[in-house]
Amino acid sequence: MTTTPVTDPTVAPCTALHHPKDPMLREDRLPHIWCPTCGIGTAVSCFVEAIKESNVSEKQIVVVSGIGCTGRVAGYVQTDSFHTTHGRAIPFAVGLSLARPDLKVVVFSGDGDLVAIGGNHLIHTARRNQNLMVVCVNNFIYGMTGGQLAPTTPVTARTSTTPYGNTEPPFNVPHLVASCGATYVARWTVLHIRRLKKAMTEALNRSGFSFIEVIAPCSTLYARRNRLGTGYDLMKFYHDNSEIRHGADTRDVAMGFQDKIIVGKFVDEDRPTFLDLYRSKGKGDGK
Amino acid sequence: MSDQAVLTGEHFMTGDEAAAEGGLAAGCRFFGGYPITPATEVTECMARRLPGLGGIFIQMEDEMASMNAILGAAWGGAKSMTSTSGPGFSLMMENLGLGIMTETPCVLVNVQRGGPSTGLPTLVGQQDMMQARWGSHGDYEIIALSPASPQEAFDLTIQAFNFSEQYRLPVLLMMDESVGHMFEKVIIPPADEIKLTPRRYTKKKPGEYLPFQAGEDLVPELIELGKGYNIHVTGLTHDEKGYPGMNPETQAPLVRRLVDKIRLNADNIYMYDERNLDDAEVVMVSYGITSRIAQLVVDECRAKGQKVGHLRLITCWPFPEKKVRELADRIKGFVVPEINLGQMVREVQRAAGRNVKIIPVSHAGGGVHAPEMIHEAVEEVIK
Amino acid sequence: MKLWRKPLDADKVKVPHGVVNVIIERCKGCSFCVEYCPRDVLRISEKFNKKGYHYPEAVAEGLCVDCNLCEDICPEFAIFSDAVEETPAAARKESA
Description:
The complex is a heterotrimer.
Chain A: E1 14-15, H1 40-53, E2 61-65, E3 80-83, H2 89-99, E4 104-110, H3 111-117, H4 119-127, E5 133-138, H5 173-180, E6 184-189, H6 193-205, E7 210-215, H7 219-225, H8 231-241, E8 242-244, E9 261-268, H9 274-280
Parallel strand pairs in A: 2-3, 2-4, 4-5, 5-7, 6-7, 8-9
Antiparallel strand pairs in A: 6-9
Helix pairs in contact in A: 1-6, 3-4, 4-5
Chain B: E1 9-14, H1 15-26, E2 28-33, H2 40-49, E3 56-59, H3 63-75, E4 79-84, H4 86-101, E5 106-114, E6 120-124, H5 129-134, E7 143-145, H6 150-167, E8 170-176, H7 177-181, E9 183-188, E10 232-234, H8 248-263, E11 272-275, E12 282-286, H9 290-304, E13 308-313, E14 315-317, H10 321-328, E15 333-338, H11 344-352, E16 357-362, H12 371-382
Parallel strand pairs in B: 2-3, 2-4, 4-5, 5-8, 7-8, 12-13, 12-15, 15-16
Antiparallel strand pairs in B: 1-9, 5-6, 7-14, 11-13
Helix pairs in contact in B: 1-2, 1-6, 3-4, 9-12, 10-11
Chain C: E1 17-22, H1 32-36, E2 42-48, E3 54-58, H2 69-73, E4 79-84, H3 88-95
Antiparallel strand pairs in C: 1-4, 2-3
């Protein structure tokens, strides 16, 4: 395909002031704070599409975020949204969804928030199969605070708290949540926009604990500190190194530093939720 | 157990159970808790009673989860409550702050025990009183109530829910292990005699409504989720729209309002029990279980002809400074017995000033005061 | 797109046409859209916005097929395509 140089003024870019997705965003707060080539915006873009395609109406969606770069998602989506404390998005969402089971509560937070400080809540809520959708944007680092070690940081990676290279083995997060009882576990990168959107739609449409790990580039900190270029280069890495393996055993999906990324839908089961079982006990008689 | 929320009638129950029943009578239908001596019975009572009332009980994985779950449930429209003791109270502090910053109505029961740290799990203390006021980080004001009997545990839990709805913040019920574990008569009135403050929902429509815009009483109105209001609630410093504003210009009016919300409405919040104050020369200031020994001492002093009065704090926070200052102007001194090494006495000192004697009667915890300890202090003031 | 034979239903399938729109001031110059547009419609412009970022522009008209990939992949919600009935060139030919 040959490209003709632009000499014809009618080909100047059509400029616009509003985006088709703006109705689902807090337009008055755009542009958002995420860095150039950060993947979080793309994850939100897929989420907005997923809401449109799901069986859930926009009004029923409540987004709960924690603290961190991904934690700021609650502030940009045009739904009832809550920006809670570090690690506590999940228990807040548990209380909210139990008080209003008619709403679809989505926890949108980062790897540090959900798996480090929030780790206890993550495993127990998965265990209970609470009716929550959890989107964990994994950029392998603590972005907001300047690039510290995360429980997902691969071995040998450099962060501001592992200046000589990380020696701690990271969590294999899909394996962690699956082993705790999550009934839907998937991982996609932000490059897989259509499949990620489909996974989010599936998660919105189902009940039970749905967990989607979204691998996203962190340009300013993870990429820069590890001399991986920018988020653009990381996207090309995802392009060349992702392998789709639906139904893979989650034990096999651990990630090394700049190593193969196995993506796909790993777990999709039906089990009664916490609320189903709680209500099925009937009235307690206290005797 | 019953399908009835309000167990009207006469009961013989502990303070813990009375607090749980008070919560249920107030309309609490969500409880997220974690076991801790001596508050476990509140949790257990809720576990037994809530399913029959269509409510939800969940034992969360830790105290931080409990505090957050009750905040989430409150935003989901439920009246929610949790209970704990010292160590759990410390864990809940960060998210108590989230509740204050987001102005979330809920009730936190602290059945105090000996501290610090693991301390005396099964024995009484009143050592978290200052923590109730200052435990979370940042500037804020709190409402804390101290029951002195299981009957009050019932009544004040209802009052706590009412305050939390009126002023939109988490309200603390600072019980102590003695009241929590003592069995006493509790009279539960008929449901229609219990006055409840309803949740202050706005009548404004989406578009007109600003989540953190307050009226004259400095308390903003709430909404129901899922109605298209699309509110944003954050623990970050925020403007009236709820959007974060990372600058002094947003911080000042917000924090000022959170503090003034309580300070300027304090006259409608203060609750205390005054006895024999009119001609008193010595005033006992006490709360919780200690107030019962204090009252015994007051009666014994009066029998001896000593002019002793009793100011029993029911709301420990906000602290009734004006009342104490007023008394300080005309009495010889205050005696402040507490099961701690001097906490609320500092407030008395602050309010009363230097021209009056203030004798703390400390007890490190694990038991209640012997009346003689308090009599000595009275003698100290009189001489 | 290079095809090794003409599709059997080529006369029945209508290739959609689109026009790329850029919200210039939102762009942060990440180039995801340029890299992943399946029809290579875009390139980074020499021009830049108020914040100094170079935003994308179409290399030529008529290439966009309104697949919406740029719309979905852009982290800044700064680019989208609008469907048009026919390419601008065909439209100009008709009105000429």
